[in-house]
Design a protein that fits this description.
Blueprint lengths: L1 H12 L19 H12 L5 E8 L2 E8 L5 H14 L8 H10 L6 E4 L2 H8 L4 E5 L5 E4 L29 H11 L5 E8 L5 E8 L5 H12 L10 H7 L12 E3 L2 H9 L3 E5 L5 E4 L17 H31 L6 H13 L4 H21 L2 H22 L4 H15 L5 H35 L2 E2 L2 E2 L21 H4 L13
Antiparallel strand pairs: 1-2, 2-4, 3-5, 4-5, 6-7, 7-9, 8-10, 9-10, 11-12
Helix pairs in contact: 6-9, 10-14, 10-15, 12-13, 12-14, 12-15
Length: 506
């Protein structure tokens, strides 16, 4: 009975991520054009953007199907309609006419034969024009895509002082071209597939055949094929499916980048980049913990300065995660560790505020997160107003009124600034701060030590597609430390690529 109840709630809150997706049944095209058009009209049910252009080709009825706003009308007219109507045809019909049009009439560069309605509708809604001819059970998709999209611009979340100013955009094909420009190598492969039973979202795996681990590639391909979702509108939809099935770690083994040069660098190291149509970013898998501290700008500076910046990020990580918890633990359990002058200030601050120290520091963190979310969601014109109001309310008024102590405010401000140095780990740091505050507030320094051990064990036990998350620290790889403990000179880094392999291949 207990096991039954446990399994019920487990399946309720943690359903199986991987389900054997049913292969959709295909419906073949008919030789009668009226039946084909009627079937599609019934499927789209009078949708306003579904257009039909009927025409007469060599005294045989034909039709061009398009979706309004998804194709370029000028290209459609010049490359498809005009050649079809102006061409003089021999006395042929049916499949012979169809093949003749493909080889001698149409001038579009992208032509594909279609034999079922499911493929036809997917290509139609992707911006292709569809040519139907009576007495022929095959249709032809013509590449005349022309939907509007945002031009390539500088990524907002990953700015670089000396690197490229190009960032990924929403169209999949443009993102593929951004990678091809940087890796002009015939070993670069683009493998496309469709996910989402409703959205039919195109995704693309990008990898180098001479660098990628075939074992990792096989595992990833299996995970993607087993995804059973209705819609996929962003890369975050796929992250939980790419992680290990029983992985409940706070950290993620799937990286996200908006920069084509960063994605190209990871691909060169044997990683796999996943591009999602409609998403201006790429997923990087497998993604290691130490890579959260690496940026493309690090490789544009001298090694000594890049190493300094790298260690500055490590220090900021510990400051952002541990400082509030240590402050709480020392103030409540070991105040003698404070210098005398600092102890007097802390004692006066704690005694003059109406809240306990744990409540006070959590309240300040909560108010800070409110202002941060408001600043992110509001228009840029109002974002400055939020900063001013927050500084006045929390930084001045609350301290002057005696609701918040100045040391607490300083500690929270320090941790907030330190966490911005490592933006990739901000969600994890936000949760870790709260946990360390509670551990230090209830159990003192020993609680922080215990929670630190649990966090380290959790990180070391995590793997992604068979690759340990904490490589090259655990298991230790001296070769990999050239870009972790230090940032070695390019004369050293370029000698051999740091290829990623799973445990069985190492």
């Amino acid at each position: 009975m207990k096991n039954t109840i446990f399994e019920y709630f487990k399946n309720l809150f943690y359903p199986k991520l991987y389900a054997n997706a049913k292969k959709p049944q295909t419906t073949p095209l008919n030789t009668n054009i009226d039946r084909n058009v009627g079937y599609l009209q019934g499927k789209f049910n009078g949708s306003a953007d579904f257009t039909i252009r009927r025409l007469n080709i060599n005294n045989i009825r034909g039709a061009i199907l398009t979706m309004e706003g998804m194709c370029n009308k000028d290209t459609l007219t010049l490359s498809v309609i005009n050649p079809l109507l102006e061409k003089e045809y021999p006395e042929i019909q049916g499949p012979e006419l169809f093949n003749y049009i493909e080889r001698n009439v149409l001038t579009a560069s992208e032509l594909t034969k279609i034999e079922d309605f499911e493929t036809l509708m997917q290509l139609l809604m992707s911006g292709f024009a569809i040519l139907l001819i009576d007495t022929c059970s095959t249709a032809m998709s013509i590449g005349v895509q022309g939907f509007s999209f945002r031009s390539v611009s500088e990524p907002e979340s990953e700015t670089s002082e000396r690197g490229s100013r190009e960032g990924f955009v929403e169209p999949l094909r443009i993102n593929m071209s951004l990678l091809r420009r940087r890796l002009k190598n015939p070993d670069l492969r683009f493998e496309t597939m469709t996910v989402g039973s409703v959205s039919k979202t195109d995704i693309c795996m990008c990898y180098l055949t001479d660098a990628v681990s075939q074992s990792i590639l096989k595992k990833l391909r299996q995970k993607l094929e087993k995804i059973d979702m209705d819609t996929v509108l962003a890369g975050g939809y796929l992250v939980s499916y790419l992680e290990d099935e029983n992985d409940h770690s706070l950290f993620s083994g799937v990286g996200i980048t908006e920069r084509p040069d960063t994605a190209a660098g990871k691909i060169n190291e044997g990683r796999i980049a996943i591009l999602i149509d409609g998403t201006p970013s790429a997923l990087i898998i497998p993604y290691l913990f130490v890579e959260n501290f690496q940026t493309m700008g690090d490789y544009s500076y001298k090694p000594y300065y890049a190493t300094f910046i790298r260690w500055l990020k490590y220090i900021c990580f510990f400051i952002a995660a541990l400082t509030p918890g240590f402050y709480t633990a020392i103030a409540l359990f070991n105040p003698e560790l404070f210098p005398e002058q600092v102890l007097n200030k802390v004692a006066v601050s704690i005694g003059s505020t109406p809240f306990g120290l744990i409540t006070e520091i959590l309240l300040v963190l909560f108010m800070y997160e409110i202002m941060r979310e408001a600043g992110l969601r509001l228009p840029k014109a109002l974002g400055h107003a939020v900063s001013i109001v927050g500084a006045l309310v929390i930084g001045d008024t609350a301290v002057s009124a005696g609701f918040i102590g100045a040391p607490t405010l300083m500690i929270v401000a320090l941790t907030a600034i330190a966490s911005y140095v490592i933006p990739n780990l901000y969600p994890q740091l936000c949760i870790l701060r709260i946990l360390f505050i509670l551990a230090g507030g209830f159990f003192g320094i020993w609680g922080i030590v215990l929670l630190s051990c649990v966090t380290i064990v959790n990180m070391c036990g995590k793997s992604i597609l068979g690759v340990p998350y904490t490589m090259p620290l655990a298991p230790f790889k001296l070769f990999g430390m050239r870009d972790v403990a230090i940032r070695a000179d390019w004369k050293v880094l370029s000698q051999r690529r740091n290829i990623i392999r799973d445990r069985k291949e190492q």
